[in-house]
Design brief:
This protein is an alpha/beta fold. The protein is built from eleven helices and six strands. The strands form two sheets. It has a four-stranded parallel sheet with strand order 2-1-3-6, with helices on both faces. A two-stranded antiparallel ribbon has the order 4-5.
Length: 287
Amino acid sequence: MSKIVWLASFPKSGNTWVRIFLNNYVADGDEPVPINKLDESIHACSRVLFDRLIGVPSSDLLSHEVEQYRPWMYVQWVAESTEPLFVKVHEAWRKNGNGRSLFPSEATHSVLHIIRNPLDVVPSLSNHYSQPIEKCIGWLNESQYTLAKSGARLNRQFPQLVTDWSMHAQSWVDASPLLVQTIRYEDMLQASTETFSKIVEAAGLLFDDDRLQKAIRFSAFDRLKSQEEAEGFRERLPQTPAFFNKGRMGGWREVLTAVQVQQIIDHHRTTMRRFGYLDKNNDQPVI
């Protein structure tokens, strides 16, 4: 039995990058794991996974009924699994209508909470969803921001209450009773060996430095971008020019206006200070 390591992040904060690194570390192959060979069902809100484990089509259930079953689904998944489970989740940590955590402790090994400067999250959201910057700032600041809302047809994922950027971080770090390791996107770029070592340790994997360095090389942004250019990436939305776009830190300086920057800071000042994105003396961005 292998428990779940939740990869928890606000959208466009580096979740896929961490998942690719972990896939490469576990595989320990001579070539990078192809980005299109990642198991797309390893998502906390996958309908396919729910239907298989619960045995009842999720399309026959109301949203609150699905949420009642979800904690049991993860417990069942863990009971069946002998391989490490690295599970992507964009939702905020919360409880269902019965007062039970959607992400049960008994099925959990740990949480890798991945966070990124919200000033850089906004342009990345804009690229990913092909939406205006102002709309993406609205999502970042919206307490009821939800992914995969029901539309004209059934989404392959359940609706996911993300909440705003600050509330999302606080839910996992402060409200969750789970073992949480926060990983900053910027540290993955600037201090790769130290940061990815923390990821390996928090995921409960045996540490090997040669393996670590190889997995870091195999999941480097330029390699991922080259794979996408050569073969495409099935997780890219149809309207998105490229999933692996720039991957830089500080790119917001070329995109956001002074007014837009202040909108984000005003809404998330306390949390940005907490995670080192604002100078505590003058509230100026430091990344």
